[in-house]
Design a protein that fits this description.
- By secondary structure, this protein is an alpha+beta fold.
- It folds into two domains: about 10-165, Ribosomal Protein S5, domain 2 (2-Layer Sandwich), CATH 3.30.230.10; about 175-275, Alpha-Beta Plaits (2-Layer Sandwich).
- The chain contains nine helices and twelve strands.
- The strands form three sheets. A four-stranded mixed beta sheet has the order 1-4-6-5, with helices on one face. It has a four-stranded antiparallel beta sheet with strand order 2-3-7-8.
- A hairpin with a 6-residue loop joins strand 10 and strand 11.
- The radius of gyration is 19 Å and the shape is globular.
Length: about 280
């Protein structure tokens, strides 16, 4: 614990990134009401901008995409109060420029919180270990701890336990499409029947990308596609454009495709979707 309250004498900025889920199996309902799952988290280059500024009182402001919800529900604010329980911290102004789509299954809010923890550790020399930061992050959200190390992992249990995987998609072009739809997490889970897997994703991810389509799935897709046909259509369009593998990320609504070369997706422009090259 810090003996004296440290001072922030200058602005500090960090760039939280998104993630995609390659496969997502809901395997079991837990006694605590959550679900056990398995997935591959893979970081992608869609970034927010997170800044802390010296201030006389704690505050939060945002620009870019609108952020719904009350201030007290903001994960960066929650992360600040969590850290403050064990460390003397000064008041800061938090500014978040939101670029990662919200409600997209990309982990944007979790990433902001995890990167905030890393930024505070650096700014105030809290001397937190990776394990320390992950422990804080796990309190804030199931996938939040992933963004502390921010490397490809096989995630299991609630999605907050990790095993590293050797996965490098840098030679491929990844296109991500965000349709004008919203899928709540509760809606997505209502449509899923937990089922143990026969072959774990940690084995399937070693297959060539061209074979993933046969074996790797997202359990949320079946029910989400029934209620949100535009999302189903986006996945189909990505395959028609030549994707080796396409999938909804998390519980949606974003869909990504992995291509050998950058695809021409101009035929989707009339669908009011947003494209990202990641």
């Amino acid at each position: 614990m810090c003996k004296n309250t440290p001072l922030l004498t200058h602005y500090m900025v960090i760039f939280p990134n998104a993630k995609i889920n390659i496969g997502l199996n809901i395997t079991e309902r837990r006694a605590d009401g959550y679900h056990n799952l398995e997935t591959i988290f893979y970081p992608v280059k869609i970034n927010d901008v997170l800044e802390i500024i010296p201030a006389d009182e704690l505050s939060f402001e945002s620009s870019g995409l609108d952020i719904p919800g009350d201030l007290d529900d903001n994960l960066c604010i929650k992360a600040y109060h969590l850290l403050k329980k064990q460390h003397k911290l000064p008041q800061v102004k938090i500014h978040l420029h939101k670029h990662i789509p919200i409600g997209a299954g990309l982990g944007g809010g979790s990433s902001d919180a995890a990167f905030f923890i890393k930024l505070m550790d650096k700014a105030f020399d809290l001397k937190l270990s990776i394990d320390d930061m992950q422990d804080y992050a796990r309190i804030l959200g199931a996938d939040c701890a992933f963004f502390i190390e921010n490397k490809p992992v096989f995630a299991f249990e609630k999605g907050d336990e990790f095993e590293p995987v050797k996965l490098d998609l840098s030679k491929y072009s990844i296109a991500l499409v965000m349709p004008p739809e919203h899928v709540s997490t509760s809606e997505a889970y209502r449509g899923v029947k937990p089922t143990p897997t026969k072959t774990s994703l940690i084995e399937l991810i070693n297959l060539p990308v061209s074979e993933w389509r046969k074996y790797i799935k997202n359990d949320f897709e079946e029910s989400v596609f029934k209620n949100h046909v535009i999302i189903r259509g986006v996945k189909a369009a990505l395959y028609e454009a030549g994707a080796l593998f396409a999938s909804m990320s998390g519980s949606g609504a974003s869909v990504f495709g992995i291509f050998e070369q950058r695809p021409d997706l101009s035929h989707l422009e009339d669908e009011n979707v947003v494209f990202y090259d990641v």
